[in-house]
Amino acid sequence: MLRIVIAEDEEMIRRGLVETIDWAALGAEVVGEAADGVEALEVLRTEHPDAVFADIRMPRLSGLDFAEKIRAAGDDTPIIFLTSYADFSYAQRAVRLGAFDYLLKPVDEIELARVLGALSKRQEADDGDDSHLPTLVDWSMDDADGNPYVADVLTAVQTRYRERLSIEELADAEGVSVSYLSRKLKEATGHTFVGLLARTRVQASLPLLRARRLRVYEVAEATGFGDYKNFSQVFKKYLQVSPRAWCAAAGEENS
């Protein structure tokens, strides 16, 4: 049975989802609920659900920002966004960024059943396969070893890898020289800034490629590479195979 968390700031809608839907008949159970993205983070940490249904617009932390935070932390829990017609463009963006799906409010039970069925199939197919993905991110925040400048750079790489980042920009923001920051970063992690960023982006691309819900060029855009040519070159550098070939091989392993 799928374990579900619902994050929705409108209490009437949240209560309706939790109490009026026959979740058991759909092969699921609600194990937690949240009124905003901050509460959702805490529920996610304590309940470890199979999926989160999150409203795109919530106070304190929006659904999109919630998704950004957990993905940056390496958590690939499927997220299904709840959205109104007015926010439809946000839903489309969310899907491009790797959301599992989206549902329009008020939620239609037939559509909900469709999404839950897809979640069940993915759970059966994956069965923990993410643990078998290549590991390119071989550092953690502990590597900063008390150096606040290095810690800030590692945080930026982990949370802002989709953006156009440069060591010059970060050094300027920290008020230190590029040479100092580069040296300390290499001493702490064994990698240059460019290497850290590239490894993080390639790592983030792997579950998206394997899921096959996005085209390869869309994965490139969603992970900060910008275009397929750059993505392919960097991907080959670290995995000795093109993204398309890796995606095809991953599909064969899961078939």
Overview of the structural elements:
The chain is of the alpha/beta class. Helices cover 55% and strands 11% of the residues. The chain is built from 12 helices and 5 strands. The chain has a 5-stranded parallel sheet, sandwiched between helices. The chain is globular and about 60 Å long.
Main β sheet profile: 5 strands, parallel
Topology as H/E string?
EHEHEHEHEHHHHHHHH
Low-confidence stretches: none
Q: Determine Rg (CA atoms, Å).
A: 20 Å
Mean pLDDT: 87
Beta-strand content: 5-15%
Shape summary: globular
Give the helix proportion (percent range): 55-70%
| Structural classification | alpha/beta
Q: Report how far apart the termini are.
A: 23 Å
**Quantity of strands, as a count:** 5
Tally of helical segments: 12
Spatial arrangement of strands, main beta sheet: 2-1-3-4-5
Fill in the keyword field for this structure.
255 residues; alpha/beta; 5-stranded parallel β-sheet; 12 helices
Secondary structure topology:
Blueprint: E1 2-7, H1 11-20, E2 28-34, H2 37-47, E3 51-55, H3 63-72, E4 79-83, H4 88-96, E5 101-104, H5 109-126, H6 148-160, H7 167-174, H8 178-189, H9 193-211, H10 216-222, H11 228-239, H12 243-254
Parallel strand pairs: 1-2, 1-3, 3-4, 4-5
